[in-house]
Design goal:
The chain has a single domain, classed as Alpha-Beta Barrel (TIM Barrel), CATH 3.20.20. Helices cover 35% and strands 19% of the residues. Strand 1, helix 1 and strand 2 form a beta-alpha-beta unit.
Length: 220
């Protein structure tokens, strides 16, 4: 059985990027300005890390911008391979981003809260290259747009995966201890981790090694 692609998010330095890649990461998450959550770095640093990341490792710009023009402007400061839109695109103008940035992959985050999240994911999946399911809550006064360390209802995640035609990434509270359970339940294309591979906010090599050993211990 194929193993999931692993994205290590909240990369905060070139050293963390190199550590994640050396341990086996397939993709790096680079967090732009957010209303809350961990790992926020400058657009200049995001671009520096992206430029020094060798192919085929993907680099994801996490943007909280909600309009196509603003997302395009943010991307031009970062120059990653992929844009991860962590909030709702209020103008729904995915085509505008596609036209301006035809070489860039688009990943839309859906924060899995209830059954409405399933339909939201199905609708959006027609416009993007992948869906990423997370455990934030954009309805709060201060929006939670990721990095919560909480799991969500994986039954809903599984339902989404079964009903969309694009790859699915699963995030939210996934650890070296539960990654096999998460994969077996949802069967995502990729798994995204942040807080569970960190100690005091810093990427922890021992936890990364534990993660990749857990993945390699037999078929998932």
């Amino acid at each position: 059985m194929a193993q999931p692609r692993i994205k290590i998010c909240c990369i905060s330095s070139l050293q963390e990027a190199q550590m994640a890649i050396a341990c086996g990461a397939d993709a790096l998450g680079l967090v732009g300005a957010m209303p809350s959550g961990p790992g926020i770095i400058s657009d200049e640093l995001i671009q520096q890390i992206a430029k020094k990341t060798p192919p085929p490792i993907a680099t994801f710009l996490l943007t909280s911008q909600t309009k196509a023009a603003n997302i395009i402007a943010h991307y031009k400061k970062a120059q990653t391979t992929t844009i991860q839109i962590v909030d709702e695109l209020t103008d729904n103008a995915y085509h505008q981003i596609r036209k301006a940035l035809p070489h860039v992959k688009l990943v839309q985050v859906i924060h899995v809260i209830d059954d409405d999240s399933v339909q939201q994911a199905i609708n959006v999946s027609q416009h993007v290259d992948a869906i990423l399911l997370d455990s934030g809550n954009p309805n709060l006064k201060v929006k939670e747009l990721g990095g919560t360390g909480r799991t969500h209802n994986w039954d809903l995640s599984k339902k989404i995966r079964q009903q969309i035609a694009v790859p699915l990434f699963l995030a939210g509270g996934i650890t070296p201890q539960n990654i096999k359970q998460a994969y077996e339940h949802v069967k995502p294309f990729g798994i995204d981790l942040c807080s569970s591979v960190r100690t005091d906010g810093k990427l922890d090599k021992d936890k990364l090694i534990m993660l990749f050993e857990a993945i390699k211990e037999g078929p998932m």
